[in-house]
Amino acid sequence: EKILITGASGFVGRYLARIFLEKGNEVTGLGTSGDHVLSDEFPRFKWICADTTLEGDWQDYVAGSDIIINLAGRTIFKRWTQTYKQAIYDSRIKTTENLVSAVERGKTRKLLTTSAVGIYGDGADEILTEDRPPGTGFLADVCRDWERAGQKARDKDVKTAVMRFGVVLGQGGGALGTMLPAFRFFVGGPLGTGSQWFPWIHIKDLAGAVEFLIENKEMEGVFNFTGPNPIPQKVFAKSLGRVLGRPAFLPAPSFAVKAAMGELGASLLQSQRALPRQLEDSGYEFMFRDADLALGDILGK
Known about the structure:
Order of helices and strands: EHEEHEHEEHEEHEEHEEHHEHH
Strand order of the largest sheet: 3-2-1-4-5-7-11
Largest sheet: 7 strands, parallel
Distance between the termini: 36 Å
Shape: globular
Radius of gyration: 19 Å
Structural class: alpha/beta
């Protein structure tokens, strides 16, 4: 099959591209980097460097794709100036709009488009399943508009699945790449009180769920991409400390997180007890249901 991945130079995009290439698919990757690490390794990989927030020749590749996986979006792990907030928004919504407008009716079988559990806003201790309406705040607004743009592909008879990502854990980048240095220097710990829920997912399960949605051709709708057992952030910090053989008792006080990271800091203190109800009800079986096992697998312990 011909698979197109936007945001293919990101942490999740690189991982998925490799899996599909190893299975013998043709993969076209789109992103803003000049080149891509997989280009030399796989002759069936085509890398297109383009600004997907703008219309352009890159859209020709969209029309010929059987499966589209839309992962494009600037990282949220940077200070949110007004300018950067606009870049976070445009990189997601404009890319998705341009993608959907280039889709050819009757050609593309399925669109898997990304969102995040940030759509729920701060859920405190409430269990968040896919039928809960969006919350409030910048990220919730971004996710709502992002999902809306992706769902428009259904007007072209494309089966559309929205993947609401939790915190993706894996080797060589992502959230763990950000957290590990602090833990290795003995200063890792929860943010704020640590009582907020941490909706993690192992990248192997993320990839497994993507393949599951592609194989089940008729499946569409909204899916929480989170492990079945979210845990409070302080429990996650302890778990990570245990796997690394490091203490995890130094919390970063809420005021310090907000002072250091501004609005991003405030969003990181939100609680999202999201459960993957739709995936589990549809028959997806998680490989990693437990954070200790997931971290042990990733960190080779």
